């Protein structure tokens, strides 16, 4: 590996690590944020979803932005934007400003991961590229181990504000490395940016999410709820129509003509919707109802992060040999059974006997699912389409979490209690079972040429 390649790989890892760390750390900090700034459950939902609305809407746009302005320019903008937003969030005096800044942070975050991967793909070739992506995946996956534990320690020992302020350190290092790298940017001619598609996507996601979250405060009969809902639905329909007509759409709809790609993304929506919903409610419940410290709650799902890192490659190889359908069916099913065991949780929770067994089942199920799911989706399309295919799958996974977290106010009645927690757990398990059923009925074993699992990282990793 040359000096420039080492610099590029380090830059890509650090830039993506920041985005993944933020995504893994936030749930642990939510009770402390709402305790200090007020707002209850709806504030906690908005802190998560404001980020996901802009991230999910704009992540598909990052590729064309990189083509027009250059990968390094977009990466710098993303890093600086993410760093400034993180610092301002750490200083936010109220929940409203924090939520707005989380939306800004999501815009910057949408530029980081696609630009990082594009930088690796343009710098490495052949087996060196596969090795570089493997290292990128391993190091960024570590964010899911470090994030909850580090966030919990900050909340318990110092302040939740440091959860965001700490982002400045890796960002500053990455910006310095970009200066030392000294590469000139490459731009592609005749590339158009789908600004209309991006605007319709933001409104199409934001309107319904606003209605779902705020209906608990305002009621479905309020114009402040049903108007954004209707406008959002119409905008989403207009987004789909526009994507069919645009010469360079941000979402190429022809990809969904491939069975495994379309069915795999439907399964992704169910599975990652369950991950977003279950991860949110369980960590908050363990702190607010069961009385766990933020650090202990951060440790609760540590086995699932470890399982993905240790077992994903193993199940990926098995998927290449036997096809992804078996693992995409059995994995979500086991995960759903794991969540069903949480129906026994009350106000007093013993982690070893009541939480850990379900977490272990979920961990094995998730580890069994991630690599085969990615392999099935990207194996259904050509190598030239792998980049946009991966971006679409990433966007679907983010939007799934966005929608399910917004649904919590519809599922629950009143404040968080064991009964409300059980309702959310049932929906989480149902989503995982739906993912398993979709995979069983919809996924087919790919052609022999596509049997090997993809090296492109899954949305979670």
UniProtKB/TrEMBL annotation:
It is a multi-pass membrane protein. Residues 8-447 form the Major facilitator superfamily (MFS) profile domain. Keywords: Cell membrane, Membrane, Transmembrane, Transmembrane helix, Transport. It is found in: Cell membrane. It comes from the Bacteria. CDD domains: MFS_MMR_MDR_like. One of its GO terms (cellular component) is plasma membrane. The chain crosses the membrane at residues 7-30, 50-66, 73-92, 104-124, 136-155, 161-181, 193-213, 225-242, 263-286, 292-314, 326-346, 358-383, 395-415, 421-443. GO terms for molecular function: transmembrane transporter activity. PANTHER family: EXPORT PROTEIN (PTHR42718:SF42), MAJOR FACILITATOR SUPERFAMILY MULTIDRUG TRANSPORTER MFSC (PTHR42718). This is EmrB/QacA subfamily drug resistance transporter. It comes from Salinibacterium amurskyense.
């Amino acid at each position: 590996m040359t000096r420039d390649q080492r610099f590029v790989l380090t830059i890509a890892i650090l830039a993506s690590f920041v985005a993944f760390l933020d995504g893994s750390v936030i749930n642990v900090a939510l009770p402390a944020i709402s305790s200090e700034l007020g707002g209850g459950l709806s504030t906690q939902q908005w802190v998560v979803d404001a980020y996901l609305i802009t991230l999910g809407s704009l992540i598909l746009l990052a590729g064309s932005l990189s083509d027009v302005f250059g990968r390094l320019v977009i990466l710098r903008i993303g890093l600086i934007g993410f760093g400034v937003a993180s610092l301002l969030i750490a200083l936010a005096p109220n929940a409203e400003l924090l939520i707005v800044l989380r939306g800004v942070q999501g815009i910057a975050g949408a530029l980081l991961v696609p630009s990082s991967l594009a930088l690796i793909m343009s710098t490495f070739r052949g087996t060196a590229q596969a090795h570089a992506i493997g290292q990128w995946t391993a190091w960024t996956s570590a964010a899911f181990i470090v994030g909850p534990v580090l966030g919990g320690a900050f909340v318990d020992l110092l302040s939740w504000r440091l959860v965001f302020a700490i982002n400045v350190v890796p960002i500053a290092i990455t910006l310095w490395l970009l200066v030392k790298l000294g590469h000139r940017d490459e731009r592609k001619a005749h590339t158009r940016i789908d600004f209309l598609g991006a605007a319709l996507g933001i409104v199409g996601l934001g309107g319904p999410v606003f209605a779902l979250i705020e209906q608990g405060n305002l009621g479905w009969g309020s114009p402040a709820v049903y108007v954004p809902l209707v406008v959002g639905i119409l905008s989403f329909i207009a987004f789909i129509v526009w994507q069919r007509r645009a010469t360079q759409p941000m979402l190429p709809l022809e990809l969904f003509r491939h069975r495994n790609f379309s069915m795999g993304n439907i399964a992704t929506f169910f599975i990652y919707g369950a991950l977003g919903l279950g991860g949110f409610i369980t960590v908050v419940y363990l702190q607010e109802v069961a009385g766990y410290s933020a650090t202990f709650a951060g440790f609760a799902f540590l086995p699932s992060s470890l399982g993905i890192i240790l077992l994903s490659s193993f199940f990926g190889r098995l998927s290449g040999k036997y096809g992804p359908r078996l693992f995409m069916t059995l994995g979500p099913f086991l995960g759903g059974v794991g969540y069903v065991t949480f129906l026994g949780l009350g106000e007093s929770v013993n982690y070893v006997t009541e939480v850990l067994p379900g977490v272990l089942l979920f961990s094995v199920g998730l580890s069994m699912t991630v690599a085969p799911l990615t392999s099935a989706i990207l194996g259904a399309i050509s190598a030239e389409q792998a980049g946009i295919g991966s971006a679409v799958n990433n966007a679907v996974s983010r939007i799934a979490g966005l929608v399910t977290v917004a649904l919590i106010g519809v599922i629950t009645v009143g404040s968080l209690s064991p009964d409300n927690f059980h309702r959310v757990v049932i929906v989480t398990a149902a989503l995982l079972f739906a993912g398993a059923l979709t995979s069983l009925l919809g996924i087919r074993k790919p052609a022999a040429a596509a049997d090997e699992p993809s090296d492109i990282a899954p949305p979670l990793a």
